[in-house]
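To illustrate the input format used throughout this study, we show a single complete record. The first block contains the structure-token representation of the backbone; no residue identities are included at this stage. The design step must infer an amino acid for every position from geometry alone.
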């Protein structure tokens, strides 16, 4: 089931990045190469590039520099998913070697994968069949901190309050 995720991070960040242009839309394979060139992305020695991604509400993949906030990549809009994506360039070949739902700005669930898979397929990108690493997010009901659940421990990293069993944004 498709769910639209709204930005849940601090207002200060959303305000600070409001003037940054929305992430580069990827509608075909060549768009990734265009984005790499136009934004002068650093390619690692092993041919890999890590980027921030969001999937807009129409199902299109957007890319931004890996140090970008997801809310900037999404132009402040709600998303179908968000996270980090790793491309590997091997000669003429371009592949997605890893992809995660790690975004504390949107806290998308692992169940957002089908929308990610659709966006990658529409762009003609070969990809793994699931998130390479998937994360669980909870908001602390006491101190409001956004937590990434580690090792299944449902406890707030800031105030040690028990976190809810279910996703709660
Ligand atoms: Zn807390």
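Output of the design step:
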């Amino acid at each position: 089931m498709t769910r639209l995720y709204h930005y849940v991070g601090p207002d200060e960040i959303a305000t600070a990045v409001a003037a940054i242009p929305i992430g580069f839309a990827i509608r075909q394979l060549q768009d990734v190469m265009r984005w790499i060139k136009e934004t002068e992305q650093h390619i690692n020695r092993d041919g890999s590039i890590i980027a921030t991604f969001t999937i807009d509400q129409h199902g299109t993949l957007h890319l931004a520099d890996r140090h970008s906030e997801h809310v900037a990549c999404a132009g402040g809009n709600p998303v179908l998913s968000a996270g980090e994506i790793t491309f590997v360039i091997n000669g003429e070949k371009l592949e997605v070697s890893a992809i995660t739902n790690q975004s504390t700005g949107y806290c998308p669930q692992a169940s957002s994968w089908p929308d990610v898979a659709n966006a990658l397929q529409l762009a003609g990108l070969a990809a793994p069949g699931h998130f390479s690493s998937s994360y669980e997010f909870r908001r602390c009901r006491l101190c409001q901190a956004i937590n990434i659940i580690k090792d299944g421990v449902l406890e707030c990293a800031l105030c040690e309050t028990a976190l809810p069993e279910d996703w709660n944004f």
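Structural context for interpreting the output: The chain has four helices and seven strands. The first strand starts at residue 24 and ends at 26.
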